[in-house]
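Quick start: read one record
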Amino acid sequence: MKRLLVASAAAIFGAGAAFADYTLFIIDDENQDVDIYAVASDDGDWAAIRMDGDDGELLEGGAARAAVGARMVADEMLDGEHRHGHSHVSIGSSDSHSHVSIIDGDSAVFVQSDEEADTSQVVITSGDGEQVLVDSADGVSRVEISGADADSARDFIEDLDDAPRHLRRAMIEALDL
């Protein structure tokens, strides 16, 4: 999973936002022992592979969107006022909560954790609009990479070593990649 995340993030940030049509998702639900790998296009097309142990299934359209669910990252971390403009560093903590934000022009890194709620969030944005979100709460970890082009989305699917080849091919076909 770590190799997949690093390769996907490198592909996205190297691609540039000019052809950014896809968002990639990786979800690891330790509570249900399920992994979900999904791709959504800006046109509204969705496809996902849901792996339950060695068993997998292809989900399309609304079923894929429902499997991914709502974005978990706190809205205040993505507030436009904090994402663009000046440069600064902010670090804070309390008994159970800590945060770090580093902003340099239009690029930013936000890290937030809450020990009592057992949650953590990381948001990395580039000046070109690419964004990587990592969120973990209650046994569910989620990575969302926005700003992918079609080649990066196809590479992401082809690199899903946990998913059987026939499901990867079906997902690529479902998204016309």
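The helical segments are 2-15, 61-68, 80-83, 150-158, 165-174.
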